[in-house]
Amino acid sequence: MSLPDPTGILRAACHCGAVRFEVTLSEGFASARRCDCSFCRRRGAIAVSAPLDGVRIVQGAENLATYSFGTHVAQHHFCKTCGIYTHHRRRSNPDEFGVNVACIEGVNPRDLGEVVWNDGVNHPSDR
User: Which of 26, 74, 101, 121 could form a disulfide with 49 if both were Cys (CB 3.0 to 4.6 A apart)?
Assistant: First the structure.
């Protein structure tokens, strides 16, 4: 299977469809990565990068909840109905979002192949 063209606006949604959004990626699918911090390793999602103005909620903004912990810089957004993580404001770069690649229409995370892991356990901001 092939991935959708990452250079335009991509459509995305949570599992139940209550939250729908559009995404413009910073670096296409080349930015795909996982993190092994205490939260991300439990979540298990692959994230791709988008600038702050690259995520536009088109439906269900009121259905998004936010979880934040530790330094409270990262803000993890998820659907209140189905619980699916949609995107988060990054601690490593608060000027961008990480977007759950599995929410993007036409993307099967398996099609990305091997995905880089970031060392979130030893986050640079903790030093």
Answer: 26
